[in-house]
Amino acid sequence: MQNNDSLIIAGKSYQSRLLVGTGKYKDLDETRNAVEASGAEIITIAVRRSNIGQSPDEPNLLDVLPMDRYTLLPNTAGCYNVEDAVRTCRMARELLDGHDLVKLEVLGNEKTLFPDTIATIEAAEILVKDDFKVMVYTNDDPIIAKRLEEIGCVAVMPLAAPIGSGLGIRNPYNILEIIENARVPIIVDAGVGTASDAAIAMELGCDGVLMNTAIAAAKDPVLMASAMKKGIQAGREAFLAGRMPRKRYASASSPIDGTFF
């Protein structure tokens, strides 16, 4: 892969295009080992569900995933309205000494965990005006994705399928439309189940993939994290290489013109 093929988010350069979550593991040791195996440099943390300093007497996630090694991406998982999402981001900034990179998600339904796009847009407008660098979870609607970019979000993160479903990319044409019209990184967020799903996202031209359940719910999370790392790399290389055209009929692998017999 090209040495200068870096992912740029909010002006910062990253070599890994795999972003990972930190929830649903059996303990902090497994969390640390899986994150290390993934090679991820950006890790997302559910502020309302993880201790990053709110509870001094409980194990702190930052003890195993320190800020001097990883870029933290506090997220608003579990928020179902604008007020809760904005408050959660502000709390994260206070706990993390002014850290301003956040992942915004405002959910609209407890069963599907689909985003409430109207509330997401409203929250994004508030946070951008409040000088947050917002990476935003949304549906795979190209119109909404473009609107979030225009608001000033530093990355747009459309779902591939419902959160935690592992169904893979259900509508690649919408994702492709979002990518082709974007001027900010497009990172698939939610729905990836295995390494081939991650590779497909990258082959489409996504700038990265964020996942949690696909790794944490695997029988061997650490091994799956390693597989995801390789899937991301393979998909990115295939995208840069440019695949052969699809054809209806076979063609010889070697030319037959000029053969000796």
Explain what this protein looks like in three dimensions.
The structure is a single chain. The strands form 3 sheets. The protein has a 5-stranded parallel β-sheet with strand order 5-4-3-10-9. A 3-stranded parallel β-sheet has the order 6-7-8. Helix 1 runs parallel beside helix 8 and helix 3 runs parallel beside helix 4 (142-151). The chain starts with 6 loop residues before the first strand and ends in a 20-residue tail after the last helix. The protein is globular. The chain is built from 8 helices and 10 strands. A hairpin with a 2-residue loop joins strand 1 and strand 2 (12-14). It is of the alpha/beta class and 261 residues long.
Tally of individual helices: 8
Low-confidence stretches: none
Taken from the alpha-carbon principal axes, the silhouette is globular
Radius of gyration: 19 Å
Strand content: 15-25%
Task: List SSEs in N-to-C order.
Answer: EEEHEEHEHEHEHEHEHH
Largest sheet descriptor = 5 strands, parallel
Task: Identify the notable features of this structure and list them briefly.
single chain; 261 residues; alpha/beta; 5-stranded parallel β-sheet; 3-stranded parallel β-sheet; 8 helices; 35% helix; globular
Task: Give a brief outline of the structure.
This protein has 261 residues and is an alpha/beta fold. It has helices at residues 28-38, 82-95, 117-129, 142-151, 172-180, 195-204, 213-216, 221-241; strands at residues 7-9, 12-14, 18-21, 42-46, 71-75, 101-104, 133-138, 155-158, 187-189, 208-211. Helix content is 35%, strand content 16%.
Q: Helices and strands in order, then pairings?
A:
Elements: E1 7-9, E2 12-14, E3 18-21, H1 28-38, E4 42-46, E5 71-75, H2 82-95, E6 101-104, H3 117-129, E7 133-138, H4 142-151, E8 155-158, H5 172-180, E9 187-189, H6 195-204, E10 208-211, H7 213-216, H8 221-241
Parallel strand pairs: 3-4, 3-10, 4-5, 6-7, 7-8, 9-10
Antiparallel strand pairs: 1-2
